Amino acid sequence: MAEGVDKDSKTEEATEKKIRDTVEKGQLPHSRETGILASFVAILLFIVFFAGNSIMELGTFLSIFLEKPDAWPMDTANDVVALSRVVTMEIGKAVASLLVLLVVAGVGASAFQNLPQFVGERIRPQASRISLAKGWKRLFGAQGFVEFLKSLGKLGFSLVVLSFVLSDSLRQFLAGMLTQTPDYVLVVRGMTIDILISIVVVMGLIAAVDLVWSRFHWRQDLKMTKQEVKDELKQSEGDPIVKSRLRSLARDRARRRMMTAVPRATLVIANPTHYAIALRYVREEDSAPVVLAKGQDLVALKIREIAEANNIAVFEDVALARSMYKQVSVDSVIPQQFYQAVAELIRVVYASKAKRKVQ
Which are the contacts of 100, defined by CB distance < 8 A and separation ≥ 6? Predict the structure, then answer.
């Protein structure tokens, strides 16, 4: 019951992260029927394009081998080994192209469904793979029952189609037994081609349905509960408490950095306690005044305190301080609209410094 409730609660489509993680683990949709179809297509191609000459040559060799056994001495162990080698070579030549086609078909069927990729997770030892309970569940669970019904349906469908095909070919098969061996081989080859074509057609339909079903079932298995989606979103964006703490630490670091820069300021504009902006201007270095620090309330008071401790001029201008605080950024030059007002204050600073030098 718990499994049914849990499965029913998975109402949300899988997120891109869930799909990506599943693909990286090698858990991809796979249709076994597509591989079987590819194998039958490979066999059909072999029979149509390659088997004619190969089978005729093999048939001629076997007929000579069976009709004239005296031509093959078997007096010693070396004779037996030599004969086995000859027979193996002849059979190998006949089926070599078939083996190559089967390998190509298997790889092609897998690549058609999913692009090849190396997945270390698939070769990592896992206890679940040798667990009797897990194996029993795979064989006799819901998925195993579905696979059994699919196999039963394939068998029934294939038998019906093959019965129609074989009913027309049976007479040819019986009549061919009265012909010479080479001609009979061609009759059997033609019947085999007809049967394989029927199997390929049937398997093509089954594979198409299974391919769609495997992807649909894979998507259904990947569905998530609302809580899983929330947890993944929280994980990807970060815990709000941790993010808040990180922001607080970043503000503290920025504040300390600003405070260490205040002693280098040329002047401070204040309002008088709510806002404070520390500016630096050196004719030889800066094209316009640069904001070293800005703060509000307690930070503003701290800026003023550091400025006064370092004999930096502090100008109280409520409107200018309030306006500049909203529009300036730390480590940036002031906007152009403040040039004139700030220039007048800088002239006062330079005039004051010049007067002190004269005295």
Answer: none
CATH code for the domain of 339: 3.40.1690.10
Do 275 and 175 lie in a common domain? no
Q: Which of 211, 234, 257 is where one domain is finished?
A: 234
Asked if residue 320 and residue 254 are part of one domain, the reply reads yes
Number of other residues whose CB lies within 10 A of the CB of residue 281: 21
pTM of the complete model: 0.48
Same domain for 335 and 278: yes
d(CA 314, CA 275): 12
How far are the Cα atoms of 64, 65, 85, 250 from residue 75, in angstroms, in the given order? 19, 16, 16, 93
- 94 and 31 housed in the same domain: yes
213 and 326 inside one domain: no
Measured distance CA(286)–CA(335) in Å, rounded: 14
Range of the domain at 219: 2-116+126-234
Torsion of CA 202, 205, 208, 213, to 10 degrees: -100
Q: Do 192 and 288 belong together in one domain? A: no
CB 275 within 8 A of CB 300: yes
Q: Each residue's pLDDT tens digit in the chain (359 positions)?
A: 344 445 667 777 887 778 877 777 777 888 888 888 888 898 888 888 877 666 666 666 666 666 666 666 666 777 667 767 777 776 777 677 788 888 888 888 888 887 766 655 555 655 655 666 665 665 566 666 667 777 777 777 767 766 766 666 666 665 555 555 556 666 777 777 877 888 888 888 888 888 888 888 888 888 888 888 777 777 766 666 767 777 788 888 888 888 888 898 889 998 877 889 999 988 878 788 899 988 888 888 988 899 888 888 888 888 888 888 888 888 888 888 888 888 888 888 888 877 776 66
* Beta carbons of 93 and 51 less than 8 angstroms apart: no
State the Cα–Cα distance between residues 97 and 53, nearest whole angstrom: 12
Structurally, how many domains does the chain consist of? 2
| CA angle at 330 for the pair 324 and 332, rounded to the nearest 5° | 85
